[in-house]
Amino acid sequence: MGSGWHEWPLVLFTVLGQCVAGALIVSGYGWLTTKDDVGKTTYRA
């Protein structure tokens, strides 16, 4: 059995890919909710 050094690029790519996917989901959800809030509220002077 080898030391498994050939697995590290796959592990790093998988972790980074999951982080990017999670960040897109969270930021997209936040963007949609704040966009809805801004549309519903009217500011009157």
Automatic annotation (TrEMBL):
It comes from the Bacteria. The keyword Transmembrane applies. GO terms for biological process: anaerobic electron transport chain. InterPro entries: DmsC. Keywords: Membrane, Transmembrane, Transmembrane helix. GO terms for cellular component: membrane. Pfam families: DmsC. The chain crosses the membrane at residues 12-32. This is Dimethyl sulfoxide reductase subunit H. It comes from Salmonella diarizonae.
